[in-house]
Amino acid sequence: MNAPLSHRRDFLKTTSSGFGYLAFAALAHQQALRANPAAGPLMPKQPHFTPRAKHVIFLCMQGAPSHVDTFDYKPKLIADAGKSAPSVAGRYGTAKLMPPQWKFGQHGKSGLWMSELWPNLAKHADDLCMLNSMATDLPAHPQAFTQLHTGTTQFVRPSLGAWTLYGLGTQNQNLPGFVTINPPGNATRTFGSAFLPAIYQGTKVGGPTIPGLPAALGRRFGGGMDQATVANIKNSRFNTEAQRAQLDLVQSLNKSTMQQGGGVSAEVEGVIESYELAFRMQAEVPKVMDLTKETEATKALYGIGDGESDTFGKQCLMARKFVEAGVRFIEITHGNWDQHFGLKAGLERNCNQVDKPVAGLLADLKARGLLKDTLVIWGGEFGRTPHSQGDDGRDHNNKGFTMWMAGGGVKGGMNYGMTDDYGYEAVLNKMHIHDWHATVLALMGLDHERLTYRYAGRDFRLTDVYGTVVKEIMA
Amino acid sequence: MKTLTLSLLILSPAALLAADAVETAHAGIAPDQLQFFEKNIRPVLVEHCYKCHSSESEKVKGGLTLDTKQATLLGGESGHPGVTPGSIAQSSLYEAMTWKKEDMQMPPKQKLPDDVIANFKKWIEMGAPDPREQKVANAGGGKRVIDMDEGRKHWSFQKPVKHTPPEVKTPNWAKTEIDQFVLAGIEKAGLRPVRDADRPTLIRRIAFDLTGLPPTPDEVKAFVADQSPDAVKRVIDMYLDSERYGERWARHWLDVARYAESSGKEVNVLYPHAWRYRDYVIESFKKDKPYDQFLKEQIAGDLMKFDGKRDQAEKIVATGFLAIGSKGHNQRDKRQFAMDLVDEQIDAMSQSMLGLTLACARCHDHKFDPVTQRDYYALAGIFLSSETQFGTYSQLQNANPGTLIELDRDAQQVSALAKISTTEVATLKKRYADATQTAENIRDQVRGMSASERQSQGAQSFLRIRSSFDRADSMKADLDLFHEDGTPRTLAMGVLDRATPINSPILIRGDLKQPGDVTPRGLVEVLCAKGEPLNIGKGSGRLDLAYWIASRDNPLTARVMANRVWLKLMGSALVVTPDNFGTMGQKPTHPELLDYLAVSFMENGWSVKKLIREIMLSRAYQMGSTYDAANYAADPDNKLHWRMSQRRLDAEAIRDAMLSVAGAINFYPVDGSPVARAGEGREGIINLLREVNSKPQTYRSIYLPLIRDQIPEFLSVFDFPDASLVNGDRDTTNVPSQSLFLMNNAQVQALADGFALRVAKYEGDSQERLSYAYQLAFGREPTPQEKQAITNFWMRFPQEIAKNKNIPKDKIQGVALSAFCQGLLASAEFRYLN
Q1: What 3-state class would DSSP assign to B666?
Q2: B-chain residues within 8 Å CB-CB of A458?
Q3: Residue B552: its H or E element
Q4: Strand-pair category, A414-416 with A383-388
Q5: Interatomic CA distance for residues A11 and A42, integer angstroms
Q6: Which residues contact B788 (CB under 8 A, 6 or more apart)?
Q7: pLDDT tens digits for range B46-87
Q8: What residues of A are in contact with residue B719 (Cβ under 8 Å)?
Q9: Is B327 in contact with B400 (CB distance < 8 Å)?
Q10: How far apart are CA B391 and CA B401, in angstroms?
């Protein structure tokens, strides 16, 4: 088998021209790719071992959702409500424990505990693998959000999606292999490729700065997915053949630039690759993103047309369509989970926005036979304190929180790990972000210790020198 | 230092946090006063107030707690101090007891007896002695966890010293002292610098770096022909003196000043007067204002000596730096809003000027740097003692409108608006009066409704009142822009000192409900020599702060700026975290070079132009960007500067270069900003988007309206930074969305048309026109290989486009020329600097 490319230059050497992509930049481009599947940095690659999942849908809840109000049931927190925070919390001083603000109940045959905020998702309890013992290094949003995506709190490193794409390639050469729907405006690191070739970066769909989304006139998530697309996806002037002739000119000039600069330029190479991908995306993206052909029943399943859940519903449906089309890694960001104040109204609103769409996504994937190949992940950068902040809020908690996975070779209806009696800190089977990364890669058939990239004289990994694969959750 | 006395008209009275004179809070309490408190005050508080206003209350009402001294002084969500020692006028607790205000009568059910109220008056007048100190562990006075002596050892907290440039082995390479530092690093790693850049490459680099625009074909020609040893120096000076230089370098500063023209966050209120600060920055760079002066003016321009009304006005505009940050205008708790505002100011100032993240110490001592919560609240006191004038009007979701500073009519400041006639003024007045009348009528009508009617309408009636008053307010906003005679008033964002300075309590975990010890206003301990006084004597302390930051004794200020300038010219910084020189930042790749640049920057009178010139005259700057396998293997990031880094142009330069090549660029924008003409409130944003989208914008990118989270697509697609955050180093991504933009976007197509028209009009044969197009776009001639590719294009494209039946036959050549020109604009070479 071919190990993942150990150096970004390697693929250039595989063609006689010394110029991998341009060799195919003719009208017969796609045929050439089909005839020679070894070419192109996005071509499917052999995993390290048999994968349990082929696609990832990461539902990223930015702002840090409260685990003790959603998926981490703590009877003692209810019993001791109003008491001073215990010594386990040390630094929290005089803060008072605040019980979960919603009732918990058991669901499915497995009897998984979930709060009443998730009436629809609860029906899928037996598919959910609760990771109750998550931990991350710092209780600060920018750093933790970066670590969630790249493993590090401070350096510029490739994101999880970029690593996955680098390791596995993607099945559809006409679409980006890594799509990020509605990413935060200031977090390019969450989908960046850092030192990996630029082609492994995530491609934005929608998001706050895309024209057609009237973000200034409403809230960021107040709608607009109907118009959301990849910006500038259509050329209004040229037929495809004419545009190809124009693009061939551009690529020839780029090739010339590269040669004049000494034959190697990561930047120019990135330009060349992104033009090729962009050209192919023009044909494919509109087809995939067209939700109008979906049945009313399907739309209803995702909560589309239901007010609160409409936007996220559309994004989830789009994610399913991307999976069907062969996209490797899809991330959807949902924001505003940072409830220092207004927990009751805020968390309820957020859950109303995502509960039905997520449940619909799981049901739809299952019905289409896609769930077994698709790893669905839900979670944020950390959790929240069991004690209150003010009357109606919770502070940051990086030492213990919950994420969950479903489908893609994980066991359903189980809890993995545990926090202490109140939900402060992971005390059993702690799962650090590094362990989580290692496990996600393992589910995709990649060994996190072998998925390396040589840069500045050193082999880099997503998990740096850490990470343990959690085999217990694998089906 | 003389502080100026201002005759400033304030648009409307501010009602913000005003916990005046808490400085006396620590005074010892005389026994008789203590007795008075215990006998007459505490029992009343316990019996009548604690039920709703203590930390033990089931539900604290109005955010007010009265069971500690600190919280009593601070007051509740209204933003008014609960008790101001010595002043019953500024004690909302007393006012509420007197039941004088219809909407604030406490205790709510039964007014307290007159003699009890009289006791409270007496108690406040005697200075509100109160023994109920907040008892919280480590509230500043507790044990210090951070060892300052240890903290001072961090490399960036020690003053830079000028090192002798190291000896180098390679003969005749180093031209300047900078080169010796750079070459020594290269040699030490066993590498060799690449060859110098050729002339066309070099002038393109210099032109973009200094003006953000490509050199004209004539400039390239003259430079290539100029064989004198001074050629490079002359061309650098030419561009440094250009009008365009100020616009280029101001934009770099605006990145770290998180400049934008709206509040961002949930409501995104427009800031129609923010552009004055932008123009101030452009002018400052153009005039090469000494950097220390530039910083001082931005922190405390209003308090500095001035020379005439114009100078005074400019210095006030400079303080706009503190007012333009993003704000959550819908915050209902005014104290919270005030503290968030101060936090944003500390964050922006410390990151941009000091390369420190001081705002991290808001809730606890800094996790990584030797900065305490005391440091933070000492600075917070300085900013709380100043009033930030950011304007905006009361609207449904704007719970925090503010005021603006009116500059003198004779200060010779430009205006975004034209004069209107007195008739128009009268019309505006009438519209405002009518709108107010309508709003009052609606209010009266709702008030006159029976309870059941009101019930049945629910929130509807409230919203009707609100929106009609909002409408009246936006009329008022329009009217307030003009003097009686119709000339526009000169309004600016900025800060002014309060009459009485205040000190801030340390807020435990940053929580307003947990005020701890009051901290005297002061400076950051770790950056002061041991034993040096930290506290502010008189006034807000902003002036002291300004002089302390913009000082040769401050170890960070010059270093941080020298590093920023190096980054912009060399493509990678010496400290790769330009906004963080703390322990979480990266150590410098060339510490001695950084110190050398910092010290010579200060020695040269903090002249940014001199610093730029010095770097540009080095051989390190003038190297080629050629690939070298051995060097690359050892140092792929070019940290050692063995070549010039290949750099992608930033968004503004890409757009401006396209406008320029298309012959469409307009160097004379209308004064002010489209935002200034859009109007206030919700309608403002709609008007603005309508104006911006309805016609092509052809002025330089720095003048485009910058609404937070609504950054123009041309800029955002090429990594324009988040305008709410300090950002000294932009991302340069390389993604298909950029390719799609360049291939398919209507703006790009229109610019390609303009470029094509220019080429078509050029007199000469097709070869000469091709040469002209190449000169415009790249500043060089096409290579034979490129000519071949171009020939191929001309053989293929017209044939293919002919299949498109919508394009008439006689238009095909024109379409093809535009497609060709677009190809040049879309190429990698157009947006990369070699």
Answers
A1: strand
A2: none
A3: none
A4: unpaired
A5: 11
A6: none
A7: 888 888 888 777 777 877 888 888 888 888 877 788 888 888
A8: 188
A9: yes
A10: 6
